[in-house]
């Protein structure tokens, strides 16, 4: 297609003094005015402001401009703003190019002269490029109103409930046999001390009973394909070996099962059966058979559960199933798991029976836990003193550099519970107390008044080598008290390690499937740290809760609601414009070698044997350009990043106007 | 002959999702780095053809930098691995054309690592300065 002869307007932004403080914007716009095809070059205080945009619109209309270059911030900030302005003035939005002279220039360059030179080069590159831009039309697609929520913890449940209450269908996928997540293991919640089960159980039930929520527990996401508004998701349903439709949840099978193994839900403090529900309030209440420990699966006999099940719900023939669903958006709420302190051998976890992790201590405090909520040592005695050690795994250069945010608060909650239930002396060994949140600092003050001992210092060692005979059988906690400036050796009966939070296992797989990334600690990268906390770089993929970083319950719930709002907003739009920059194959040039088909990870390219050519499915193509770079015959071009445009930009960046090879017809002549 | 420091020119092809974003982050964090780099944005590092790299060098750039997502983090699944292959090919071609393949560098910089971007740019710029200006600058090849 022959495009109209370029007539370019160049606009250099001052961005207050963000750019003009370093770059001589006058000089840049003057320089730009002499570049090929440039009809107008101006500089303006804030190009993104209404008057700035209006300036572009008016110039396009008055002077018949058909190409626009704005030299300002990163295109990730305002490309959309100016494309919309171009469109408003009646030219194709793709007739626009942005030169980033703020993030990539004025903010990172020391010398004003070098910064000005760089700005000129970048503008020259953009001018050369925009002259080759082609008109493109965006595709409009329908948005599937169904939503997939991955993860049935408090955040995922809240998201699912909000969307379902809004009248839209939700698929809630949870890999454990029950929804509920980590919160269902807790006893009390800080700082209000309300019972975790009392506030979360109703949510579990509401999710289980909601007509718009299809729960898929004991299931995992196996594959995600498609794009915003039109995802196809494959879900692997692991066999429960119990027919959920027939099971009444009476629990006889669990009672009769002879095989006992350590309970994951109680973090190895109790035993469960090989056929089990993780906890009494599980939703759904249908048990699963753990084939690794079931005698029938191991040795071929037993079938006690089957014998005693009156409903005839046991089905040893169940097979893994792959279910395919179609959704328009996906909310990832895969949460966290706790740090395993075994590698910190100085704390003796796994060696001394009275050293517990915080999540184990939650179970000890919980009425459905190993001690029915009583705080007692393994030999059943009430402790006289308890040490709680903060920052285990967190704020540690060797493990997790970050602060896990919730440990100070839950540690203080433990201190309160220990004092309340046993009257024992509690020693909190902390580095700094972090209590930002509504009522959190007040809770800290209350704990100090209650007589909890706060010792500022990192524990160096926990040992059973006691100093005096009367402490025999106790554990000695050794730490330097950095406020009193002396080493403290305190004998205690129980030790709680306040372990940090890390991303749930398997998060990278989910991230990869939906095309987003995780940071160096493994948490999911949000779209923008301030302004896009729930969105991701992949359109239609939202995140909520601890998969993005450690959070407390109120923040996780808020994020669940926020992500639900974002998904509902997308659904309300009904239709969506999709970026037009996709690949196109020139059938005249294609020789049917199928290399493009091979490199396309989305399966967007198909081969026509009769014509011996390949074709791009624009609805599936994501516009990476791998095929364009691979095609040996140059039959493929990626729209908006085609060879003409990129070569022109490269040459533009390299040469002054006199050297333009590729830039314009005149110069080529 | 002797290079003015700001005379050195490096053309960088950065993928939109990771290294370009890291460059933005280096900017918002106000990290100062050498001013010689000129960025061309592509959606994915796999879009970069070996020919682009050679052309930039033949046109007289002193260095070519390619930035993509970290392994496993590619927005397009494995475009970065294809980029690695293409860059390796470009280096071989450069050598046979009598160009210094040391002037070509591929680096995988995650979106969250602005400081790393600034560091790599400084390091690569220093390396190019050591190599001196690209002889292709003064000779016409095409």
- Report, as a whole number of angstroms, the end-to-end distance of chain B: 22 Å
Order of neighbouring strands in the sheet with most strands of chain B: 2-1-3-4
Rounded to the nearest angstrom, the distance between the terminal CA atoms of chain A is: 20 Å
**Globular, elongated, flat, extended or rod-shaped: what is the shape of chain B?**
globular
Number of helices of chain B: 4
Strand order of the largest sheet of chain A: 8-7-6-16-27
| Oligomer description | heterodimer
Q: What's the β-strand tally of chain B?
A: 4
Give, in order, the helices and strands of chain B. Answer: EHEHEHEH
CATH class of the largest domain in chain A: Alpha Beta
The average pLDDT score of chain A comes to: 94
CATH topology of the largest domain in chain A: FAD/NAD(P)-binding domain
CATH 4th-level superfamily of the largest domain in chain A: FAD/NAD(P)-binding domain
**Rg of chain B, Cα atoms, Å:** 15 Å
Beta-strand content estimate of chain B: 15-25%
Large-scale geometry of chain A: globular
Mean pLDDT of chain B: 90
Number of domains of chain A: 4
Most extensive chain-chain interface: A-B, 55 and 50 residues
């Amino acid at each position: 297609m022959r495009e109209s002869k370029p007539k370019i307007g160049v606009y250099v932004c001052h961005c207050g003094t963000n750019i003009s403080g370093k770059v001589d914007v006058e000089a840049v716009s003057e320089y730009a005015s002499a570049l090929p095809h440039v009809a107008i070059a101006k500089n303006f205080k804030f190009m993104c402001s209404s008057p700035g945009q209006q300036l572009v619109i008016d110039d396009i209309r008055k002077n018949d401009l058909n190409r626009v270059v704005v030299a300002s911030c990163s295109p990730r900030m305002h490309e959309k703003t100016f494309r919309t302005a171009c469109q408003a003035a009646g030219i194709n939005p793709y007739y626009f190019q942005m030169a980033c002279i703020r993030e990539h220039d004025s903010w990172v360059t020391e010398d004003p002269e070098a910064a000005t030179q760089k700005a000129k080069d970048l503008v020259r590159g953009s001018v050369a490029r925009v002259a080759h831009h082609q008109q493109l039309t965006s595709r409009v697609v329908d948005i599937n109103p169904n939503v997939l929520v991955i993860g049935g913890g408090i955040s995922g449940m809240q998201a699912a409930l909000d969307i379902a209450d809004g009248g839209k269908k939700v698929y809630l996928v949870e890999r454990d046999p029950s929804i509920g997540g980590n919160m269902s293991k807790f006893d009390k919640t800080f700082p209000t001390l309300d019972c975790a089960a009392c506030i979360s159980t109703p949510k579990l039930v509401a999710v289980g009973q909601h007509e718009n929520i299809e729960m898929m527990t004991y299931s995992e996401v196996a594959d995600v394909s498609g794009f915003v508004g039109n995802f196809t998701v494959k879900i692997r349903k692991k066999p429960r070996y119990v027919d959920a439709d027939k099971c009444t949840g009476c629990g006889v099978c669990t009672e009769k099962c002879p095989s006992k193994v350590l309970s994951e839900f109680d973090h190895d403090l109790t035993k469960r059966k090989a056929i089990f529900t993780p906890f009494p309030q599980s939703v759904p209440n249908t048990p699963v058979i753990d084939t690794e420990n079931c005698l029938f699966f191991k040795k071929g006999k037993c079938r006690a559960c089957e014998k005693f099940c009156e409903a005839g719900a046991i089905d040893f023939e169940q097979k893994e199933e792959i279910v395919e669903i179609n959704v328009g958006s996906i909310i990832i709420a895969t949460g966290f798991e706790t740090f395993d302190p075994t590698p910190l051998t100085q704390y003796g976890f796994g060696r001394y029976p009275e050293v517990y992790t915080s999540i184990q201590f939650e179970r000890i405090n919980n009425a459905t836990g190993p001690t029915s909520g009583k705080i007692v040592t393994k030999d059943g005695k009430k402790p006289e003193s308890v040490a709680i050690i903060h920052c285990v795994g967190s704020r540690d250069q060797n493990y997790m550099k970050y602060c896990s945010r919730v440990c100070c608060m839950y540690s203080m909650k433990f201190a309160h519970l220990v004092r309340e239930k046993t009257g024992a002396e509690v020693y909190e060994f902390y580095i700094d107390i972090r209590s930002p949140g509504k009522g959190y600092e007040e809770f800290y003050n209350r704990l100090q008044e209650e007589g909890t001992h706060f010792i500022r210092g990192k524990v160096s060692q926990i040992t059973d080598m006691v100093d005096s005979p009367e402490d025999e059988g106790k554990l000695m906690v050794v730490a330097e008290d950095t406020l009193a400036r002396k080493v403290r050796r305190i004998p205690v009966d129980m030790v709680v390690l306040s372990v940090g939070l890390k991303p749930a296992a398997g998060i990278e797989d989910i991230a990869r499937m939906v095309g987003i990334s995780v940071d160096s600690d493994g948490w999911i990268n949000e779209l923008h740290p301030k302004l896009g906390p729930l969105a991701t770089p992949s359109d239609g993929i939202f995140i909520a809760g601890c998969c993005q970083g450690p959070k407390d319950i109120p923040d996780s719930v808020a994020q669940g609601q926020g992500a639900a709002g974002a998904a509902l907003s997308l659904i309300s739009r009904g239709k969506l414009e999709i970026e037009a920059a996709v690949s196109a194959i020139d059938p005249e040039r294609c020789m049917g070698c199928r290399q493009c088909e091979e490199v396309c990870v989305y399966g967007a390219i198909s081969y026509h044997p009769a014509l011996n050519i390949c074709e791009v499915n624009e609805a599936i193509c994501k516009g990476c350009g791998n095929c364009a770079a691979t095609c040996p015959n140059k039959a493929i071009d990626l729209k908006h990043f085609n060879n003409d445009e990129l070569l022109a930009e490269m040459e533009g960046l390299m040469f002054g106007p006199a050297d333009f090879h590729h830039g314009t017809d005149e110069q080529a002549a | 002959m002797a290079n003015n420091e700001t005379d050195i020119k490096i053309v960088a092809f950065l993928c939109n999702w990771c290294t370009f974003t890291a460059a933005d982050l280096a900017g918002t964090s106000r990290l100062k780095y050498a001013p010689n780099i000129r960025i061309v944005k592509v959606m994915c590092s796999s879009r970069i053809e070996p020919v682009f790299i050679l052309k930039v060098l033949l046109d007289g750039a002193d260095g070519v930098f390619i930035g993509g997502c970290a392994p496993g983090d590619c927005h397009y699944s494995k475009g970065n691995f294809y980029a690695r292959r293409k860059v390796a090919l470009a280096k071989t071609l450069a050598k046979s054309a009598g160009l210094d393949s040391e002037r070509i560098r591929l680096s995988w910089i995650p979106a969250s690592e602005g400081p790393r971007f600034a560091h790599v740019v400084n390091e690569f710029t220093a390396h190019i300065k050591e190599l001196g200006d690209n002889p292709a600058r003064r000779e016409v090849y095409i």
